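User: Could you go from structure to sequence for me? I need the amino acid at each position, not a summary. Structure tokens:
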């Protein structure tokens, strides 16, 4: 596969804002998020359908995909930021013009539900995208200085980002204790598993799999990990990185349950590949931005994730 990196973002560049999934409950947050970006010296343009609401969706599928296509078609737009996640991006996958995406590579940023677009763009167009902050949950409020600094640096510099600390969980009996490397792919667990069996699911052979999740009880995490296992995903990848799993507990105190830690050990404890956890990415305030599709190394000795290349050119 020919891997395509977008051009780095420069001061004064035009950033397009789209809402490919759900619409925010408080539309006034859009203005504060846009103001934050504008005040940094960038220009912004919103998709004409941003702010529309159709149930739990930010407008119809046709309206949302039209904004996506328009931003990739506009030669003046240098980067595309997603407004928020929620649900709905996965409904657009069979309506997207992937030739347009491939011929007009641009920075695309988001996480959670945006996993659907990120993995489809990599599979169908070879485009490197960015797991990072979004306008509503991050830019519209007091953004964490940690999130802010590493985000703008990651999308505006061709330098490799600094290694990120994570905890070495399983796989200590490996023949090569120095670590393993591969392209980092994945994202939100529920969204990723929903792509299995489709032509939008990424080829994970010899990759590093990243997973994060929020508000799913242990039995649902169990079900999704089992779906990955039954599709031989864990036999294909060279390593696994677990990001934040927020509020993934059983709320019913009278219900028998495994813990999240037990479920994770059941699926990963006996794998003959390194498994890291506590990587700072997901539904958290201090969020590490990283490019999906670039080569990384899991360094077993230092317990760090090393990025072997930048995500922009």
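Assistant: Here is the amino acid at each position, in order:
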């Amino acid at each position: 596969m020919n891997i395509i990196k977008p051009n780095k973002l420069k001061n004064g560049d035009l950033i397009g804002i789209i809402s490919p999934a759900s619409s925010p409950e408080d539309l006034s947050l859009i203005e504060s998020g846009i103001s934050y970006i504008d005040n940094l010296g960038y220009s912004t343009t919103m998709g004409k359908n941003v702010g529309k609401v159709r149930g739990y969706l930010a407008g119809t599928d046709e309206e949302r995909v039209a904004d996506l296509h328009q931003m990739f078609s506009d030669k003046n737009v240098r980067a595309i930021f997603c407004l928020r996640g929620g649900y709905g991006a996965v409904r657009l996958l069979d309506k997207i013009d992937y030739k347009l995406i491939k011929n007009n590579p641009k920075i695309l940023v988001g996480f959670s539900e945006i996993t659907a677009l990120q993995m489809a763009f990599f599979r169908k167009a070879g485009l490197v995208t960015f797991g990072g902050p979004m306008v509503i949950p991050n830019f519209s409020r007091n953004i964490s200085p940690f999130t802010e600094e590493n985000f703008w640096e990651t999308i505006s510099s061709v330098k490799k980002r600094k290694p990120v600390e994570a905890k070495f969980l399983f796989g200590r009996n490996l023949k090569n204790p120095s670590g393993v490397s591969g392209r980092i792919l994945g994202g939100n667990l529920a969204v990723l598993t929903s792509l299995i069996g489709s032509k939008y699911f990424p080829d994970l052979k010899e990759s590093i799999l990243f997973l994060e999740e929020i508000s799913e009880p242990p039995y649902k995490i169990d079900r999704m990990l089992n779906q990955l296992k039954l599709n031989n995903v864990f036999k294909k990848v060279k390593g696994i990185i677990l990001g934040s799993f927020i509020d993934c507990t059983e709320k019913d105190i009278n219900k028998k349950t495994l813990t999240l830690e037990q479920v994770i050990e059941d699926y990963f404890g006996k794998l003959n590949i390194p498994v890291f956890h506590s990587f700072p990415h997901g539904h958290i305030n201090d969020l590490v931005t990283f490019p999906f599709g670039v080569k990384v190394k899991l360094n077993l000795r230092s317990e760090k994730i090393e990025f072997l290349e930048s995500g922009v050119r």
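One structural detail worth keeping in mind: DSSP finds ten helices and 14 strands in the chain.
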